[in-house]
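Morning. Coffee machine broken again, so started the prediction first thing and wrote up yesterday's gels while waiting. Chain of 126 residues, entered below exactly as on the submission form.
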Amino acid sequence: MTYAYDVEEADFDQRVVARSHQTPVLVDIGADWCGPCLVLGPVLDRLVKEYAGRFLLAKVDADENMRIAGRHGVRGFPTVIVYSRGEEIDRFHSAQTEGFLRRFIDSVIERHNAADAAGELVAQPA
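Came back before lunch.
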């Protein structure tokens, strides 16, 4: 299974927002000419494979999809935005260390799973 994929404006809602109801989706908004993007991208690619489906990585080429960047108020690249349960729950800017990324991703997964557990508790009859 592919855990990392390219996203465009036309399929953003389906491939990011809708999929985030099952699995957290990190949206990496960057550009080929952006130095920090070239540093961050390979680390995210490696981590998404290592985490094997515990989160998904949607890659957005900002030059080709300026409306996505505008819709999210992106002011610089790279910007990583997290969707869970159909909503943005967190973000960070610029290249980060692998340690930061692991803590960030673990936190995202934990919050997503906590929402699952809370939903299950509400759904069960008293």
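The helical segments are 12-18, 35-51, 66-71, 98-123. Going to sketch it on the whiteboard this afternoon.
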